[in-house]
Q: What sequence folds into this?
């Protein structure tokens, strides 16, 4: 088949003028809808856990608490975010470049692997066969189908990453796109490259652990596949090669989305494209060894190894973030000033479209991720401070600022564009969407602040009852710890309200929103050899 | 070369970046002090 054989599979977006490959649009739809389903599951778990951490309420029983923490972590950190990112990869390659997405059937197969894995993992978790937390550290052992589900999901995502790279090649080769990749697609490219490393590292962690979890009736003694023990330190290092690198994927994707939202809402363009691209490349260089900050208290690793990786190497990635931290507001400011908003230092900011959920979501996400999440993350990665922060509620305090206040909020803001522009449905509850980003941002900031301060006072993470009521010795916590844990509960109620409003708007719009009729137009590769 | 080439003029963003750096230093050292007071070495 030649490129022109796909020419009648396109429509033209009437708002942006982008050429949308309609089979790719269906793949974006299924991945985005899958993402929101797992966001809902994770969100319900979140409110139940938070109302248990709030000591005065202490909602769940002990075993359900650990089960739901596992389910919350896995559904949110893995399934919600990765399904959304897969939708983003297809969007960033096919739609942004005006290209066809190659291998549509292969894309559906990859989604099939991911959804099968995700369902398997959830069934195992909710039936009590995988109360091992998201990290699943040996010697904790879950049911084999838990590990198999994660492996299937990871394989599907990995294949999607390769398909995305191939889509970029096809876009160039067949003449759909000419010249440099747009910055948004470039950011997604760095995310995809990190994802390949991430998922291979995950395979190193999870494949032996899956074999270890299989009973001797399936793999008998003497078989070369029989693994009787998984070294916990080996697993931890391999796991965090997957685990933290996965967060850097989220960071690269989030920053790419910030540039896109800044452009869509204010017309912002990066003031120096080269610097922005260098910053994305720094993410690639700095993160992999920097993941060692999860192993700062592990025995068997030298202090030199840990400090070198979490200081010198990790800070390469931090410098990348600092470049974006100036580049993004500068892009918005330059665009706003060119519209005449030049009074004083900040008229460009005060007169920005704050009532537009795309801009408010981007701006709030940027502030929470940078001012709160990034700062606390760098602090946590300092060896000396990590010694007294490890395993306290400080750690989830930090990562709720980044993953939830940062990445999830940015994804929500982008969804309000994706639904009408890509999924072709008018938004239901558009006015409510304006408030949703603020409600969610305020809620998650309160949750994170409560966790951070409680953690500083010594509250442990992943612990059902910080008061350790049945213990012989009681830990003398500061009296302020209880109000801090109350903040976690109160903030969670507010954040959950924002979350459920978002899910309501998204689901109602996607399934019941007024259809926007597609403008189907033939589209041939404009830069193919011999093209007019 | 176009005479209308966009210039970067972002004094507000520069101030925001400086505020961010000041905030970073403040949070870093207050957290260090708070942790130091809560986890005394005996």
A:
């Amino acid at each position: 088949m030649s490129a022109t054989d796909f020419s009648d599979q396109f429509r033209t977006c009437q708002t942006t003028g982008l050429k949308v490959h309609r089979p790719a649009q269906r793949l974006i739809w299924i991945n985005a809808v899958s993402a929101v389903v797992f966001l809902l599951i994770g969100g319900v778990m979140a409110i139940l856990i938070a109302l248990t951490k709030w000591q005065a309420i202490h909602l769940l029983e002990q075993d359900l608490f650990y089960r739901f923490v596992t389910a919350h972590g896995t559904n949110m950190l893995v399934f919600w975010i990765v399904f959304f990112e897969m939708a983003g990869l297809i969007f960033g390659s096919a739609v942004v470049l005006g290209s066809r997405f190659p291998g549509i059937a292969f894309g559906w197969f990859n989604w099939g692997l991911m959804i099968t894995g995700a369902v398997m993992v959830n069934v195992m978790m909710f039936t009590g066969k995988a109360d091992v937390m998201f990290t699943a550290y040996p010697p904790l052992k879950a049911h084999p189908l838990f590990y198999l589900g994660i492996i299937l999901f990871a394989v599907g995502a990995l294949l999607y990453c390769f398909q995305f790279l191939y889509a970029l090649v096809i876009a160039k080769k067949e003449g759909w796109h000419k010249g440099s990749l747009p910055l948004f697609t470039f950011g997604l490219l760095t995310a995809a490259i990190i994802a390949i490393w991430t998922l291979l590292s995950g395979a190193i962690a999870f494949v032996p652990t899956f074999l270890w979890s299989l009973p001797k009736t399936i793999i008998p003694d003497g078989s070369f596949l029989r693994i009787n023990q998984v070294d916990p330190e080996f697993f931890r290092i391999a796991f965090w090669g997957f685990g933290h690198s996965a967060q850097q994927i989220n960071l690269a994707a989030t920053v790419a989305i910030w540039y896109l939202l800044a452009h869509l809402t204010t017309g912002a363009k990066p003031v120096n494209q080269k610097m922005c691209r260098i910053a994305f490349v720094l993410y690639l260089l700095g993160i992999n060894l920097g993941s060692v900050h999860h192993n700062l208290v592990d025995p068997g690793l030298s202090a030199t190894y840990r400090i070198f990786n979490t200081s010198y190497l990790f800070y390469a990635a931090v410098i990348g973030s600092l470049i974006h931290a100036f580049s993004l507001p500068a892009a918005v400011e330059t665009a706003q000033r060119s519209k005449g908003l030049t009074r004083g230092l900040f008229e460009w900011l005060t007169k920005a479209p704050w009532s537009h959920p795309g801009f408010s979501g981007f701006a709030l996400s940027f502030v929470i991720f940078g001012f709160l999440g990034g700062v606390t993350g760098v602090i946590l990665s300092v060896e000396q401070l990590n010694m007294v922060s490890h395993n306290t509620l400080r750690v989830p305090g930090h990562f709720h600022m980044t993953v939830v206040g940062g990445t999830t909020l940015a994804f929500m803001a982008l969804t309000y564009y994706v639904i009408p522009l890509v999924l072709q449905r008018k938004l239901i509850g558009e006015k409510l969407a304006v408030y949703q980003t603020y409600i969610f941002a305020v809620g998650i900031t309160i949750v994170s602040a409560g966790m951070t301060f409680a953690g500083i006072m010594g509250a442990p993470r992943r612990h059902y009852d910080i008061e350790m009521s049945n213990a012989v010795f009681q830990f003398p916590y500061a009296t302020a710890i209880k109000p801090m844990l109350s903040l976690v509960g109160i903030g969670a109620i507010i954040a959950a309200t924002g979350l459920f409003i978002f899910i309501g708007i998204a689901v109602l719009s996607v399934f019941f929103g007024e259809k926007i009729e597609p403008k189907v137009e033939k589209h041939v590769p404009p830069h193919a050899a011999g093209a007019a | 070369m176009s005479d209308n080439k966009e210039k970067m003029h972002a004094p507000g963003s520069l101030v925001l970046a400086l505020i961010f750096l000041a905030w970073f230093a403040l949070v870093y050292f207050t957290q260090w002090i708070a942790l130091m007071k809560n986890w005394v070495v005996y």
Observations:
- Helices of chain B lie at 11-38.
